[in-house]
Amino acid sequence: MSAPLPWRRVAVLGARGAIGGALVAQLAAGGAERVYALARGTPWREDGPLCHGPVDVLDETALAAAAARLADEGTLDAVIVATGALHAPGMMPEKSLRDLNLAALQQAFTINCAGPALAFKHFLPLLPRQTPGVMASLSARVGSIGDNRKGGWYGYRAAKAALNMVVRCTAIEAARRYPQAVIAGLHPGTVDSPLSQPFQGFVPAGQLFTPQQSAARLLAVLARLRPEDSGKCFAHDGAEIPP
User: At 206, which CATH number?
Assistant: First the structure.
């Protein structure tokens, strides 16, 4: 990062993903005193400013346990949920209504909306009450209803749109007890990762980012947000994405 980041204590959920891992590395390099790198199947261990630990956003017991452990060490200046899936076994983006099936829709909503929502539930109380704090989740431009011009990808689009509503509702609720907090969705762009790999052939030249490029852009955006921005979704270039 070109300048020190404004957060001393940060948690990243989904820290073993391409973007999550890049966020962790840049937060540690950006001067954070403590970075909690949380991911499925990761045992608790210390590594300098990094503290690795287990979290599965689809396991509420694990979320509660991790949040309780971090709460014992103090408040967090920022929480970033870097989880999500566009495709998985039995789940691929749909080209038309004919491709819809209940199991894939449920999987898309569980991973892309329910998981981050539960993470918000358990980690929002770790933000400071009277000083600035940030809670963000990776969203996607395709979750914007107003920006949708191509259709398709029903499950993923709808799940990300639902996540954006969770962001908005959380922001409204958080404003009552955490008046300086910012709750935001983040569009990372198209990143060279397993999530985008099957679709990279459709990406225009120069618009496929490395995880490190995307992470740097997202952190710069988050560092500029203020309480009046809470409840909104922003792209990696800082532009607000319409609901």
Answer: 3.40.50.720
Query: Which of the 8 DSSP states describes residue 43?
Result: P
Cα 126 to Cα 71: distance, rounded to the nearest angstrom: 6
Domain that holds residue 103: 9-241
Report residue 82: phi and psi, to 5°. -110, 45
Nearest alpha-carbon partner for 241 in 126, 138, 122: 138
- For the whole prediction, is pTM greater than 0.70? yes
pLDDT digits (tens, 9 = 90+) for 137-152: 999 999 999 999 999 9
Give the H or E element holding residue 34.
Answer: strand 34-39
- Other CB atoms within 10 Å distance of the CB of residue 110: 14
Measured distance between the N- and C-terminal CA atoms of the chain, rounded to whole angstroms: 30
Tens digit of pLDDT for each residue in 33-57? 999 999 999 999 999 999 999 999 9
Do residues 1 and 30 touch, judged by C-beta distance below 8 A?
yes
* CA distances to 45, 57, 89, 196, 203 from 113, in Å: 29, 10, 18, 19, 25
The total of structural domains in the chain comes to: 1
Is residue 104 domain-resident?
yes
Residue 153's SS3 state is coil
| Residue 66 domain-assigned (yes or no) | yes
C-alpha–C-alpha distance, residues 142 and 99, integer Å: 18
Across the chain, which distance is largest between two alpha carbons, in Å?
51
Q: Is residue 173 part of a domain?
A: yes
Contact 164, 233 (CB under 8 A): yes
The reply to whether 2 falls in a domain is no
Q: Report CA torsion sign: 153, 162, 149, 196.
A: negative
